[in-house]
Design brief:
Layout: E1 7-10, E2 15-19, H1 21-38, H2 50-55, H3 70-75, H4 85-114, E3 125-129, H5 131-151, H6 171-192
Helix pairs in contact: 1-4, 4-5, 5-6
Length: 194
Amino acid sequence: MWRKNYGFWRDRTSMQLTLVPEEAGVLGGLAEAMLALVGPVSEAQPSVDPFDQLVDLSDEVQPPMEPTDPAVHRLFPNAYGDDDAEAAADFRRFTEQGLRQLKAARLATVERLVAEFGVPGADAKTVEITDDDAEVFLGAMNDMRLVLGSRLDITTDDDEVGASWDPDDPRHHQYDVYQWVTWLQSTLLEVMVK
């Protein structure tokens, strides 16, 4: 299924993305799953102004809890490591909601864009990608790689992933997806610097 002759590319005037619908479905499915991890952007949930948080010194304002899911922790790591729990909690309190909203907005945009590729079984399709969309894809694919890497216990690019897995282990498919997203992200980086 993974066709490494498609992906992001540039013609004379703009960036393009070519995928078959099955690949777009994988990307859309990843975006949907990631939205469940970061939380959707909701108009009903007002944005908390950092100044309002700063001046509200009541006990009612609690910083977000440090994530217990290792994949979510990779998306929202401690700013100060384990050195200063109080500073890390303050940083999380002032930044996490905005980061969640940014990541969720990126993922929702990726879902919307990949929906243009049609139904499984159709031929490959190309859509034009704006510079803004390219930035969105870049950030979303980076987050996808962080989560997939966390789920697969990948800590460096040199990890020999899967060498000890049973041939029928379902993680092989997840690793294939991880490698494909990595490749797709690299095609985007190449065309962004041209």
